[in-house]
């Protein structure tokens, strides 16, 4: 006998989007500094419940809630779990230049018609910039391989590079020559958020 569904079960409601994803951080301020500098994210809140939370928005429709946890609770190796962001084909080269400017190691993996650029934040969370419609003329200008913070390139792809080279750790960010600029950007964002709270 077929089960009868209630009216709520038959209703055609759908999720309309993703509001936020909460990710653990050893130091939410350091993590937020990374996101505001490297991804150009907007800092949207600084709150304390049982621990510190900082909200950063890398795009209008999505937010990371960075929440404070100890070293033992922040696993650097999360296997296949990662957060992927869509980018425009025309911006692909600019994103690579931005990662290079901020001395972030990354693995670029251009394929026929698309590209994935993998890197990590300061807590070892795996991130990806993805373009699903990449013209061949752009792909041909981007060598596949591991881009190191010193500007060197180790050519390779998913078949030739090790797992660690495909997801390079970012343990020493920001680099000494970019630290002051990154911290100033973050302090400007934090000052704006705090000024908004005090004005309420």
Short description:
The chain is of the alpha+beta class and 200 residues long.
What does this structure look like?
The protein is α+β, with helices and mostly antiparallel strands. The protein has a single domain (20-194), classed as 2,3-Dihydroxybiphenyl 1,2-Dioxygenase, domain 1 (Roll), CATH 3.10.180. The mean pLDDT is 88. The N and C termini lie far apart (59 Å). The radius of gyration is 19 Å and the shape is globular. It has a six-stranded mixed beta sheet, with helices on one face. The chain has helices at 7-10, 28-38, 92-101, 136-139, 163-166, 179-198; strands spanning 20-25, 42-48, 52-59, 62-68, 83-86, 106-111, 114-120, 126-131, 145-147, 153-155. 26% of the residues lie in helices and 28% in strands.
CATH H level, superfamily name: 2,3-Dihydroxybiphenyl 1,2-Dioxygenase, domain 1
Provide the number of structural domains. Answer: 1
Number of helices: 6
What distance separates the N and C termini? 59 Å
Name the helicity range: 25-40%
Mean of pLDDT: 88
Q: Which sheet architecture does the biggest sheet show?
A: 6 strands, mixed
Number of strands: 10
Sheet-strand content, in percent, reads 25-35%
Shape: globular
Cα-atom radius of gyration: 19 Å
H/E series:
HEHEEEEHEEEHEEHH
Strand order of the largest sheet: 5-8-7-6-9-10
State the CATH topology. Answer: 2,3-Dihydroxybiphenyl 1,2-Dioxygenase, domain 1
**Low-confidence segments:** none
Just give the CATH class.
Alpha Beta
CATH architecture: Roll
Oligomer: single chain
Helices and strands: which structural class? alpha+beta
